[in-house]
């Protein structure tokens, strides 16, 4: 690993442990995610500490994926760490996409405020299952866009849109006659109306996850990313790194849960000895250590693939499945080790369990990734038959 990444990761870890973790009991932690006032306060501290948006260099270039991994893992040591350091979803993935495909004008208007930590963003893709809209299969997209003079007019309904409430930058996916399209939108916009903020199992993302109506949204033609019909190809650029950065952040959170459970098991006595000395407990912590190390190595392997310039579609699917399942086992065992304390809000272990459970759904559920990998296996087998 490079010296620059190691140095940045060390500063980030010190910042999260010393300055962010004390905020985990803050009164501004809402049911649908931390309030923006809290996020702003944390980002001000990160800016002062020199760890705001640490994965993007001053010249706008990104660290490699392998370098990014060791830094994002450290931001994940607290549920508030990614927000404080500006490495959280969906902003981190949106910054990556805009940095890759945005025009100079688009970057100045939409990307720069995100990098500076002055704005949040939302990615409007998923649609309600009740009406047959797009979820894991984006080809089912029902939101439409049509060209009207020098504007595109967009209509549709989106669901589970993370951070839509309070976001200032939106990336909206819609379908034209040529195919999928992406548009950059200033938020809030009266044509994008929140129907509700959905109650979900997780609570770490500002603004929660909203269902919104998009009614006659007019977007200037120069705010389309690329050309009409290129939306799916741009989604592929964002997809694999975004999957992997989820793995990075939640590995940090699972690592912290293991630290808390270990401390509990070593201090708590029952039946004449510390809990850790009971095989049933000690073995759970040992299994966690194995899962954490395997997750770390899986992330590093996939990051190395992405650093070659490959889209890494299959590799990121494998990493997402392996890491999300492993970290869920870790979080579940931590709850079990800590008993009643584990299911309470006295520590962040129960939140880690909730957040990581949702991770197994976000960016594609395990079953969709396995199905995709199975198709790849079949394709490669057929190719080998000549």
TrEMBL record:
InterPro entries: Acyl-CoA_dehydrogenase, Acyl-CoA_Oxase/DH_mid-dom, Acyl-CoA_Oxase/DH_mid-dom_sf, AcylCo_DH-like_C, AcylCo_DH/oxidase_C, AcylCoA_DH/ox_N_sf, AcylCoA_DH/oxidase_NM_dom_sf. Residues 122-194 form the Acyl-CoA oxidase/dehydrogenase middle domain. One of its GO terms (molecular function) is acyl-CoA dehydrogenase activity. Residues 229-376 form the Acyl-CoA dehydrogenase/oxidase C-terminal domain. Its cofactor is FAD. GO terms for biological process: fatty acid beta-oxidation using acyl-CoA dehydrogenase. It comes from the Bacteria. GO terms for cellular component: cytoplasm. Keywords: FAD, Flavoprotein, Oxidoreductase. Belongs to the acyl-CoA dehydrogenase family. This is Acyl-CoA dehydrogenase.
